[in-house]
Design a protein that fits this description.
The complex is a heterodimer. By secondary structure, chain A is mostly beta strands. Helices cover 0% and strands 58% of the residues of chain A. The N and C termini of chain B lie far apart (36 Å). Classes of the chains: A mainly beta, B mainly beta.
């Protein structure tokens, strides 16, 4: 069973602060995705990284895939109340015709005005 | 496009009752999947399908059945509901299920089993 450990589980910060969320595993993934989920809704994809060492930026969000493709991080600069939500990382693996997406338990972020 | 739709949004069942959670997508996606989300457990894969007529088990398949008779629909059946199946259920779809593809999630079905 492949596991993805996310940390921290909960994070409460003030508007304007920076933060980093981590996603770690002992397994290698072919891709790593980050989703954001708001209360009462399904997760929505933020980004997909597929190459070891890859860095992607989405406005104030910076995503990095570890060189060994076992870990990833999400960094938010100058957090805003609109960033509040549950952030989920998900590792993708494919073997033959089977494909599975393994999710971490999530980081619940609250940005206070 | 409506994307991925799920019905019902909420359901209360008694132990032993059966029901079907409906999931439909209008994006012509081949790959569809069902997850359950529990506090502190994240999203766990129940069953998935790589195309019409093809289904396979995920991480937590016990107590659930699925079928895929059309590309659009992927219902999840609970044959005899148990309190342990109280959860929020999400259906998702993608084009072919490739590991770098976007998974599109429905809004979820909140199920309470008494």
């Amino acid at each position: 069973t492949q596991l993805l450990e996310q940390s921290p589980q909960f994070l409460s910060i003030q508007e304007g602060e920076n933060l980093t969320v981590y996603c770690n595993s002992s397994s290698v993934f072919s891709s790593l995705q980050w989703y954001r989920q708001e209360p009462g809704e399904g997760p929505v994809l933020l980004v997909t990284v597929v190459t070891g060492g890859e860095v992607k930026k989405l406005k104030r969000l910076t995503f990095q895939f570890g060189d060994a493709r076992k870990d990833s991080s999400l960094h938010i600069t100058a957090a805003q109340p609109g960033d509040t939500g549950l952030y989920l990382c998900a590792g993708g693996t494919r073997g033959g015709s089977n494909y599975k997406l393994t999710f971490g338990k999530g980081t619940l972020l609250t940005v206070n005005p | 496009n409506a994307g991925v739709t799920q019905t019902p949004k909420f359901q209360v069942l008694k132990t032993g009752q059966s029901m079907t959670l409906q999931c439909a997508q209008d994006m012509n996606h081949e790959y569809m999947s069902w997850y359950r989300q529990d506090p502190g457990m994240g999203l766990r894969l129940i069953h998935y399908s790589v195309g019409a007529g093809i289904t396979d088990q995920g991480e937590v398949p016990n107590g659930y059945n699925v079928s895929r008779s059309t590309t659009e629909d992927f219902p999840l059946r609970l044959l005899s509901a148990a309190p342990s199946q109280t959860s929020v259920y999400f259906c998702a779809s993608s084009y072919t299920g490739g590991s770098a593809e976007t998974q599109y999630f429905g809004p979820g079905t909140r199920l309470l089993v008494l």
